[in-house]
Specification:
The complex is a heterodimer of chains A (250) and B (446).
Chain A: E1 3-4, E2 16-17, H1 18-22, H2 25-36, H3 41-44, H4 53-56, H5 59-63, H6 68-76, H7 80-86, H8 99-103, H9 110-123, H10 127-133, H11 137-146, H12 165-171, H13 174-179, H14 197-209, H15 212-219, H16 221-249
Antiparallel strand pairs in A: 1-2
Chain B: E1 3-4, E2 11-12, H1 30-39, E3 43-46, E4 55-59, E5 64-67, E6 72-75, H2 78-83, H3 86-97, E7 102-103, H4 113-119, H5 124-141, E8 144-147, H6 150-165, H7 167-180, E9 189-192, H8 198-204, H9 206-217, E10 228-231, H10 235-238, E11 246-247, H11 261-266, E12 270-271, H12 287-290, H13 292-311, E13 315-318, H14 321-329, E14 344-347, H15 348-355, H16 374-380, H17 385-404, H18 408-418
Parallel strand pairs in B: 3-9, 6-7, 6-8, 10-12, 10-13, 13-14
Antiparallel strand pairs in B: 1-2, 4-5, 4-11
Classes of the chains: A mainly alpha (250), B alpha/beta (446).
The structure holds iron/sulfur cluster (SF4) (2 copies).
One iron/sulfur cluster (SF4) binds at residues 48-54, 69, 72, 104-106, 108, 110 of chain A.
Chain lengths: 250, 446
């Protein structure tokens, strides 16, 4: 891996990737400023004792080269290179459990800082972010079009062989088994519950108004096209339904 | 009980019910702000009324939190309905048993926060709009939202805090809600008085649940007094917006979250403590789907192994979607590394329903559960579980057969008796124009 170690001002020797070193300084400052200017930032970062309680309780720290204390310290020292570098892969190790937040004596929220950094990474469509989220496409498709993140038909044993033989058994005759769930809206296969068309239409409006569709387009244009086909088809069905209802009322 | 602030939504227990470490909660201040915004006509507080048969619990700051127990709008969880359907079914089963009123309708999306925490592909305005749209829908029906998922609960608590304390967020979300027709007639945002997780409902109803166990569970030969239970509290219920979750003197003298533990104790099962109780499960949002080595390594090494070695527990009790999935699905794979620690895994409400005599497969839907639950059933005295499983499998066959023959009317008739409430009777707009996000046809035709 192409890495270059710079001697840091404060004596830290954190490896920074070659790629980050090649990005113009102003660009890196712009990205970090985008993180800092988020309205939540002021509520997520206060002082830091460097006590390491956050890192000691962090689940991701146990299995990845990842430390919430480090993130907090880098922000306090405004270490642009390291922060920019972290925004490519480092931050994606976080499990978003917020153990750091409940335990920090200063009430810092490193997991919250990470979510802002992730949002900015996605908005800026970093290549590393695109690669990292590729396997996540199926989930994005489901949540963007139906409003459910998960449905029974997504849990195919091919994708989850590690979940064992009981899982295989579950998937046999799935439709009938789903119908044997004892409440009506839960009998769906393609969604977790039956999400009404009207509700999905309102959600599409929310995605449009808040720039979420644009985010997806920048991240993965192919996925975006598939999503928009379904969205537009559903919007047409909704228009037809409104017409039908209007005619009946008249 | 309790002393009041200038806001009707903020009350503290007096005297303090247990030693309180966090006396100056910034979070609690939001109930005063909410009141002010309501006075200014910016928001409408969706109040919990007598009709909701409120009960009261304490948070860790000593605040008295109001828990509505009746007339509830089921805010479902996609992970539960998609993967652990016995979870919501058990909640509804209890509500039927207690004669409580509820609404379970299709006009609701997920909170979309699982996606947000996993992929960052959303933002606070979108999250707020999704939340407030769902809340407005509940308000329109007059049923109070009961949030099934821990992540929805955590995310909604956080989003409400951001909304109440940040004018810019209110200003960004309001025009969107207006376009959707999701403001009140006089242009206010509908904000719930309390954000309530189903585990808080279970906690508030623990006496009634224990009575049902005596009345209906025990006569069936069910006995949970020998069951050793390891409790796993979900991060997004008690670590996220930590000042808004129940604590109680009867659970570690108010120094650990009380929900789940209290009901299990009330049922008379043995709650056993273990050293990594505070650790998360390893779900990680993105990790459970695309970094599974992490999820299973963490779940096995930090929880399953510890629970097996320290406690020899019979069951891990959870109160959230992700943790339940993580623990039940990541046991078998441990065999590959000689780290197989089989144990039953289910949520507090599923275990409670079993204790009270609910059908393990028709109601608790253990069919979908990949954990080693059979020895638990035996130990609880549900020794006929094989017959009960066969019963459910026969139902599945019967349904499949009717569908194959296109006998939809007969199916509907069957569901009228089989389902926890009569199909289609309890939606806010009836059956006629029902079309779903995936089909023009209702349920079994989709
Ligand atoms: S939220 Fe992220 S940084 Fe904080 S403890 Fe959890 S995994 Fe670690
Ligand atoms: S727990 Fe808080 S004070 Fe301690 S190192 Fe982490 S961020 Fe700093």
């Amino acid at each position: 891996m192409a890495e270059q170690t710079q001697v840091r001002k404060y004596g830290y020797n954190i490896p920074i990737s070659e790629k980050t070193l090649q990005v113009p300084w102003e660009e890196k400052v712009r990205v970090i400023e985008e993180v800092r200017s988020d309205f939540r930032f002021k509520d997520f970062l206060f002082g830091c004792l460097n006590c390491g309680v956050c890192t000691a309780s962090c689940p991701s720290n146990r299995f990845f080269d990842y430390s919430p204390r480090e993130i907090v310290q880098r922000f306090l020292e405004n270490d642009i290179d390291v922060l920019y570098d972290m925004m490519h892969e480092y931050i994606w190790a976080c499990s978003q459990c917020f153990t750091c937040w409940i335990r920090c004596p200063f009430v810092n929220n490193p997991g919250g800082l990470v979510i802002i950094m992730r949002e900015v990474a996605v908005r800026n469509a970093f290549e590393a972010t695109k690669d990292l989220l590729k396997p996540y496409g199926r989930v994005l498709l489901k949540v963007m079009t139906t409003g459910n993140q998960l449905s029974a038909d997504m849990l195919q044993p091919d994708f989850f062989p590690d979940w064992g033989p009981k899982m295989l058994d579950n998937m046999e005759n799935l439709r009938a088994k789903r119908m044997a769930i004892p409440f009506d809206v839960g009998k769906a296969v393609k969604t977790a519950w039956e999400v009404s068309l009207q509700t999905a239409i309102e959600m599409y409006q929310i995605w449009r108004e808040t720039g979420i569709f644009e985010l997806i387009e920048r991240l993965d244009p192919n996925l975006y096209n598939v999503i928009m086909d379904i969205v537009e088809e559903n919007e047409e069905r909704w228009e037809e339904l409104l017409e039908e209802m209007g005619e009946e009322q008249a | 009980m309790g002393h009041t602030s200038k806001s009707p939504y903020l009350k503290y227990a007096d005297p303090e019910p247990f030693p309180i470490l966090n006396k100056h909660s910034h979070y609690d201040h939001l109930f005063e702000e909410m009141h002010e915004l309501e006075e200014k006509g910016e928001i409408l507080v969706f109040r919990i009324t007598e009709e909701n048969k409120p009960k009261y619990v304490y948070t860790r700051t000593g605040r008295i939190k109001t828990i509505p127990t009746n007339k509830l709008w089921h805010h479902k969880s996609c992970g539960q309905c998609g993967n652990i359907p016995g979870y919501p079914a058990s909640v509804m089963w209890f509500m039927n048993k207690f004669g409580l009123d509820y609404l379970n309708e299709p006009h609701q999306t997920s909170c979309t926060a699982w996606n947000y925490h996993g992929s960052g592909t959303s933002n606070p305005v979108a999250l707020a709009a999704v939340w407030l749209r769902n809340m407005h829908q509940a308000w329109k029906t007059g049923y109070y939202p009961l949030i099934h998922c821990g992540t929805s609960f955590g995310s909604y608590k956080e989003t409400r805090e951001q909304l109440i304390f940040n004018k810019e967020l209110r200003e960004a979300v309001k025009p969107i809600l207006k376009k959707l027709g999701r403001l009140t007639e006089d242009g206010r945002i509908v904000v719930p008085q309390e954000i309530v997780h189903y585990s808080e409902w279970v906690h508030a109803m623990r006496d009634e649940i224990a009575q049902l166990y005596e009345k209906e569970g025990k006569p069936k030969g069910i006995d949970v007094s020998n069951i050793r239970v390891a409790i796993h509290n979900a991060c997004h219920t008690w670590k996220m917006m930590a000042d808004d979750y129940p604590y109680d003197p009867e659970v570690y003298n108010g120094q650990r979250p009380a929900a789940s533990t209290a009901v299990i104790k009330r049922l008379g099962a043995q709650v056993v403590d273990y050293s990594t109780w505070y650790d998360c499960c390893g779900f990680g949002f993105r990790h459970i789907l695309t970094e599974r080595e992490f999820t299973r390594s963490f779940a096995i090494q930090r929880k399953l192994k510890v629970i097996a070695e320290e406690l020899k527990a019979d069951i891990i009790i959870t109160h959230d979607t992700g943790c339940t999935t993580t623990f039940e699905k990541n046991q078998w794979i441990g065999k590959a590394h000689g780290m197989y620690y089989p144990i039953a895994v289910m949520s507090d409400v599923m275990f409670s329903a079993l204790a009270c005599g609910a059908h393990p497969f028709k109601i608790v839907q253990l069919y979908w559960n990949c954990s080693n639950y059979e020895p638990l059933l035996e130990k609880m005295g549900i020794t006929n579980w094989r017959e009960l499983k066969k019963e459910w499998e026969d139902v599945v066959k019967y349904i499949a057969e009717l569908e194959k023959q296109g006998k939809y009317d007969e199916l509907l008739e069957f569901f009228k008796k089989y389902d926890l409430y009569e199909p289609y009777s309890k939606t806010s707009d009836g059956f006629k124009y029902r079309r779903s996000a995936t089909s023009d046809m209702p349920l079994f035709k989709s």
